[in-house]
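Researcher: We're teaching a course module on how sequence relates to structure. For the next exercise, students receive a sequence and then see the predicted structure as tokens, so they can try to spot secondary structure elements on their own. Here is the exercise chain.
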Amino acid sequence: MIKGVFVTGTDTAIGKTVVSAWLVRALDGDYWKPVQTGLAEDTGDSATVRALSALPDDRFHAPVHELQAALSPQEAARREGVEIVLDG
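Model: And here is the predicted structure for the students to work with:
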């Protein structure tokens, strides 16, 4: 049984969000993006995955960190004075 899938890519606008929506729908899974960046420019990937997958809201888990800058998580956090901690 699959416990998790990690979707990654090296650039923006290469399809990570669309692939994530397809996977969560095809695997009947949940969606979690632990660090969301770029919120100053749009609503974020979770909203897009939710709309594309048409799954109920309870299948989506809030990010641990939400950052405004549309940069890598590390750089957005540095600029916003945030320390990224994901281990609870």
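Model: If you want an answer key for the exercise: The first helix runs from residue 16 to 26. The chain has three helices and four strands.
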